[in-house]
Design a protein that fits this description.
The chain has 272 residues and is of the alpha/beta class. It has nine helices and 14 strands. The structure holds (5S)-5-amino-3-OXO-hexanoic acid and zinc ion.
Length: 272
């Protein structure tokens, strides 16, 4: 097994401080959390931006501030969201790709998202893949439903994505694949063997699916974007606490945690 890549999904677009007061909003708060998670063992941070009132934004200048503030502190790998928030236009969503991140997410299908629809038309997916490739940014394919794997492999055939792909199985979004071991086993069975994968369990699925992935040789994503609780009825004190728990589980399972440099080698970052 390779060393374990831990991604910290710091902010997201959905959870607010009314849900958990530790959700970071400003570039300074996001950078401070990125640094704390890097110190704890995360080698990638997945970034969304917010206005100071907490509403989500894909504004390029705000992302640039976040990226600069993080890079001043540490060498953690910076992955920007191109998902943004439900209802944003594709043009709006793509802005951070042009601000010098190491990685960017690419959702390869449309999916129900609680009471909303997270729209990703075939035309838009291709445009996103082209932009990510043109910027020399490493894509992470976000899989909320099984058909999204085939859609990504179709983009490889068209020359818009390069193998080996790196997948993120996002499991437990209401309206999408449930956060169960069966979902994870199935998705893992559907990707080519040389591809890498991580799992983002939503809500209460974060802990069991993370532990399962560590044992299976996958990678793991945790953070307040996906889950605001430490355990049932107890809010997480912050992103760092969720990363620290995964590091402890990895140690118990005798899986070493990758540094950012090791993660760059595992994911071929900078070679796309
Ligand atoms: N906020 C979700 C609608 C991503 O970051 O690429 C989409 C999302 C995926 O979070
Ligand atoms: Zn996200």
């Amino acid at each position: 097994m390779s060393k374990l890549i831990i991604t910290a999904a710091l902010t997201g677009a959905e959870a607010t401080r009314a849900d958990n007061p530790a959700v970071p909003y400003t570039p300074e708060e996001i950078a401070a959390d990125a640094y704390a998670c890097w110190q704890a063992g995360a080698s990638i941070v997945h970034i969304h931006a917010r206005h100071s009132d907490g509403t989500p934004t894909q504004d390029g200048d705000t992302y640039e501030q976040i990226i600069k503030a993080i890079r001043e502190k540490c060498d953690v790998i910076i992955q920007v969201s191109t998902g943004g928030a439900v209802g944003m236009s594709p043009r709006e969503r793509l802005q951070p790709v042009y601000r010098g991140p190491d990685m960017a997410t690419l959702s390869t299908g449309t999916v129900n998202f609680a009471d909303d629809v997270f729209m990703n038309t075939p035309t838009d997916i291709e445009a996103f893949a082209k932009a990510i490739k043109a910027q020399g940014v490493k894509p992470e394919v976000e899989v909320f439903d099984a058909g999204m794997i085939n859609n990504a492999l179709g983009l490889v055939k068209k020359g818009l994505l390069s193998m080996p792909l790196h997948f993120d199985f996002v499991l437990g979004v209401p309206g999408a694949l449930p956060g169960t071991p069966e979902s994870l086993m199935f998705l893992r069975s559907q990707i080519p063997r040389d591809c890498t994968w991580t799992v983002a369990g939503i809500g209460r699925a974060e802990l069991p699916l993370g532990a399962m992935s560590i044992a299976m040789g996958g990678h793991v994503r945790v953070g307040l974007e996906d889950n605001i609780y430490y355990r049932k009825g107890e809010l997480a004190t912050g992103n760092r606490q969720l990363v620290e728990r995964m590091v402890r589980i990895a140690r118990e399972l005798e899986r070493e945690v990758a540094t950012p440099e090791e993660t760059r080698a595992i994911l071929n970052i900078g070679r796309n």
